[in-house]
């Protein structure tokens, strides 16, 4: 069901339409990999658990745009905190111990006039665990851009099995729409509904709003 839902949303939000047989093949391969992984004996039980389970390499994820840059750090402890420390001029606060925070943003490329989506995942030390940069098709308003960026970023994190615990956005209207208990009636309500559906895969995730630095 998840593979079908993902394929549907990719088509809905501007990506190429995937053949049903390819979706079925991907789902079967994914389930087989999970079963093989579950059958293996757990090694190094005395070690602390990794911030997220072993990431699927980007080449195994279907229909990512060709220009997508995807970086997964398998061993975040190999990188020093200073190497990946957040910019001193940007207001960023680390998640609690063992937490994993994702920051998402969207902007229009001034040259290509194309929407660019970016996401960065960091642990409580400020070490980068994963990063994403990808284009998106379509002409959107500011709020729609940010909601679309959040949708694609969470979908990417889900496919790579990244256990997000904290989500930070500078889009106030998107934040309010996602955290409101009332029904969303905005012009991008369908997109908000899709984001909420994705959030159900991250039941422990906490969403916060941060003001954008000017």
UniProtKB/TrEMBL annotation:
Molecular function GO terms recorded: nucleic acid binding; RNA-DNA hybrid ribonuclease activity
Residue stretches making up the RNase H type-1 domain: 103-212
Xref: Pfam families: RVT_3 (PF13456)
InterPro entries: RNase_H-like, RNase_H-like_dom_plant, RNaseH-like_sf, RNaseH_domain, RNaseH_sf
Name of this protein: RNase H type-1 domain-containing protein
Taxonomic classification: Eukaryota, Viridiplantae, Streptophyta, Embryophyta, Tracheophyta
């Amino acid at each position: 069901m998840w593979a079908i839902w993902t394929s549907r949303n990719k088509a809905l939000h501007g990506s190429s339409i995937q053949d049903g047989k390819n979706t079925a093949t991907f789902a079967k391969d994914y389930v087989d990999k999970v079963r093989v992984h579950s059958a293996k004996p757990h090694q190094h039980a005395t070690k602390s658990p990794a911030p997220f389970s072993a990431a699927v390499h980007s080449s195994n994820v279907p229909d990512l745009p060709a220009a997508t840059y995807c970086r997964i750090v398998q061993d975040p402890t190999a990188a020093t905190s200073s190497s990946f420390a957040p910019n001193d001029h940007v207001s960023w606060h680390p998640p609690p111990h063992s937490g994993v925070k994702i920051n998402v943003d969207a902007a229009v490329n001034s040259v290509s006039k194309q929407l660019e989506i970016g996401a960065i995942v960091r642990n409580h030390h400020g070490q980068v665990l994963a990063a994403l940069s990808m284009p998106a098709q379509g002409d959107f308003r500011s709020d729609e851009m940010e909601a679309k960026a959040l949708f694609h970023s969470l979908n990417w994190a889900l496919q790579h099995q990244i256990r997000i615990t904290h989500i930070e956005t500078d889009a106030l209207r998107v934040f309010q729409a996602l955290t409101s208990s009332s029904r969303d009636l905005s012009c991008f309500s369908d997109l908000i509904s899709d984001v909420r559906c994705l959030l159900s895969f991250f039941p422990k995730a906490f969403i916060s709003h941060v003001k954008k630095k000017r």
